[in-house]
Write a structure and sequence with these properties.
Layout: E1 2-7, H1 10-17, H2 20-27, E2 32-37, E3 50-51, E4 61-62, H3 64-75, E5 85-95, H4 98-104, E6 109-113, E7 119-120, H5 122-128, E8 131-134, H6 144-155, E9 188-189, E10 192-193, H7 203-221, H8 233-248
Parallel strand pairs: 1-2, 1-6, 4-7, 5-6, 5-8
Antiparallel strand pairs: 3-4, 9-10
Helix pairs in contact: 7-8
The structure holds S-adenosyl-L-homocysteine.
Length: 249
């Protein structure tokens, strides 16, 4: 996969992409993140990429010309069979979640545009956008963090990027459940003990405990993501028990 990120702060993207899992994905030849400096596509002397909004109002807006040129350059990097997904980061977009990340992980080429200031001339979005993505109901100063959030969540889902292929399977959201609590050595730290069941080596018991913790957490914190179609009969019985305990409190 190739991810071209168009930004006025390429150093932010390059710095994060040079670490940890994104770095490993690049070294393995599985996914590469390429920052494109929008200012390189501005034709004026001062490399301006923005101008005042028509109709008045505060702030500045990204201009058509540099954006059209930068996106065309990014699109010319597509040597794959599949079409590119052109993603505009925006609070007005569809909210990003794990399912959306999974969908994007099957693509070969993503182009992500990071807005700044008041946003981007609508003609750019109308011409190129296949997606507009919001990372949540709040407003950031720019699209760089959203672009990194999207890239990070997508790349780690590509098979063979994470060392242990199983490590995505039980993660939060993957089956409409949050993850169970994790513990590591030592067994006791300043009087704080790891739950006994995890020390016993009884894999069936451990699996049952973890499943119950997932159900409990999700029920208490994120009932909106519980998906009955993905639950077993035992899960539903356990949830009913939690519910009646809650009702009796
Ligand atoms: N005036 C715009 C906000 C612009 S913020 C509005 O009210 O909708 C500047 C840039 O930051 C945006 O163009 C976008 O690229 C990015 N951005 C800010 N908040 C975001 C969010 N929640 N999700 C994705 N991108 C965001």
């Amino acid at each position: 996969m190739l991810i071209d990120i168009i930004t006025i702060f390429p150093q932010v993207i390059e710095s994060y992409a040079s670490l940890s899992i994104l770095k490993r994905a690049k070294e393995k030849g599985i996914a590469q993140i390429n920052a494109i400096n929008l200012r390189d596509y501005s034709t004026d002397k001062y490399h301006h990429v923005d101008d005042t909004p028509y109709g008045g109002g505060a702030g500045m807006v990204f201009k058509c010309e540099p954006c059209f040129k930068a996106i065309d350059t990014a699109l010319s990097h597509n040597t794959f069979y599949k079409k590119s997904r052109v993603i505009f980061t925006s609070p007005c977009g569809r909210t990003f979640d794990q399912e959306y990340a999974e969908e994007l992980s099957f693509e070969d080429h993503l182009v992500i545009i990071c807005g700044r200031y008041e946003g981007i001339d609508q003609r750019i979005i109308d011409t190129y956008a296949t997606d507009e993505i919001s990372v949540g109901d709040y407003v950031l100063c720019g699209g760089e963090l959203p672009a990194l959030i999207i890239s990070d969540a997508v790349v780690r889902l590509i098979p063979e990027v994470l060392g242990n292929d199983l490590s995505c399977e039980n993660e939060s959201f993957s089956a409409g459940l949050l993850e169970y609590p994790q513990y590591t050595k030592p067994e006791i730290y300043e009087g704080l003990k790891v739950p006994d069941v995890l020390l016993g080596g009884n894999h069936k018991e451990i699996e049952k405990w973890r499943r119950e913790k997932q159900l409990e957490r999700t029920f208490l914190r994120r009932p909106d993501i519980l998906n009955r179609d993905l639950l077993t009969k035992e899960d539903i019985l356990y949830l009913n028990k939690l519910k009646s305990e809650g009702d009796n409190k």
